[in-house]
Amino acid sequence: MRSSKLRWIAAACVVAALSLILAACGGGGSDSSSSQSNTTEEASTTEEGSTTASEESGGGTQTVSFQLDWTPNTNHTGLYVAQEKGLYEKAGINLEILPYSEGSADTLIGAGKADCGISFQENIPIAVAAGSSEKAVLPILQHEANALIVKEDSEFKSPKDLSGKKYGGFGIPYEVPMVNQMIEYDGGSGEVQNVILNTGAYEAVYHGQVDTSLAFRTWELIEAAERGIKLREFPVQDYGVPDTYNVLIACNNGWLEQNHELAKKFIQATAEGYEDASQDPKEAAEILIKANPGAFPNENLVFASAEKLAKEFYLGEEGKFGCWTAKRWEEYPQWAAEKGIISDANGNKVTEPPSGEEMYTDEFLPSWCGES
Q1: Nearest by Cα to 112 from 223, 4, 227, 258
Q2: Are residues 81 and 151 in the same domain?
Q3: What is the value of pTM for the model shown?
Q4: Where is average pLDDT lowest: 56-60, 105-109, 256-260, 318-322?
Q5: Exposure string (b/e) for 42-69, b if CB count within 10 Å is 16 or more?
């Protein structure tokens, strides 16, 4: 599916935008200092406006604006399930799902143009260090969903065999360090040749134009199998890269401070939607398809992806959705800082990541996360 493949591009836009101090992805040519000043004013104004809009919604309901990271896909299923089953309505919430635009989700959340939205744990340390006013509030996936892929009939039997080979990339700061780490951990020398191909990376692997790329186990690998393309996969976290809460929900800091109870209700209802999706992935896929007519030419892929997410990615070790640990929030950001992936608002590399308190909060996690 085109939308899933382009999630890497959306992530690249996040990094590009934040390196310009929250300038819109692909936006105009203002310098970074003026972009920072304008964004600060804009964020302040928008945060106040967002709060007012929430408080003035009629009929006793409050509006929450939610920014998607790309076109609707199975990472978003719980939102549509919660909406279809009346969980937001019961909580007195009108959820306004904002379609993907040229601005990345992290940029729009940080600037206060959306109350909350989809992000990735890999993005949060980069975004916060660069000055984005956002915080992670709820994990959607419990594990890193990306894997290094090679053709099954290739000479590459494990990551170490990819030393010096061609990697089809997406222009994201953390992808090549990830791949090199995997190769080194497996006993190779690392240092792949990075060929930025964006959405063409997968087809380039399939046709032997590059040797490897990173792909979503919850979409691209399923799609390839349906096409009869045989691949070998090496999950990122199995080769020395700290595991992550790969996909998550982040919210604007100012909005969280000014709408504490609304945020708690919204996150609880959303978590219940994803919990339902984990228990009945077939129904969840049907709801996602129904809510987005024409978005999924291959509906079988949606069902297969929903099933894999439910079985392998939604629930933690205790069988609960939406919980996390401080350890995971220490390991990946520290690794990213050590690899030189994180920069401050002036573009200078940092040796220490933002603090856990700056990157995430436990305050709004689902009610069941505190239960033993």
Answers
A1: 258
A2: no
A3: 0.87
A4: 56-60
A5: ebeebbeebbeebeeeeeeebbbbbbbb
Q: Are residues 133 and 154 in the same domain?
A: no
Residue 208: how many other CB atoms lie within 10 Å: 11
Mean pLDDT, rounded, of the chain = 88
Number of domains in the chain: 2
Query: Reduced to 3 DSSP states, what percent helix, strand and coil does the chain have, rounded to the nearest 5?
Result: 50, 15, 35
Give per-residue pLDDT as tens, 54-101. 444 445 899 999 999 989 999 999 999 999 999 999 999 999 999 988
Q: Where are the alpha helices (DSSP H) in 30-174?
A: 32-56, 77-84, 87-90, 105-110, 123-129
Token pair in block for residue 346: 């002036």
118, 76 Cβ separation under 8 angstroms? yes
Other C-beta atoms closer than 10 Å to the C-beta of 102 total 11
Does residue 363 lie within any of the structural domains?
no
Let me know if 221 is exposed, middle or buried by CB neighbors in 10 A (0-12, 13-18, 19+). Answer: buried
- Structural element, H or E, at residue 135: strand 134-139
With contact defined as beta carbons under 8 Å apart, do 96 and 312 qualify? no
Tens-place pLDDT, residues 248-295: 999 999 999 999 999 999 999 999 999 999 999 999 999 999 999 999
Q: What radius of gyration, in Å, describes the C-alpha atoms of the chain? A: 20
Q: Identify whether residues 37 and 138 lie together within a single domain.
A: yes
Rounded average pLDDT over 31-40: 29
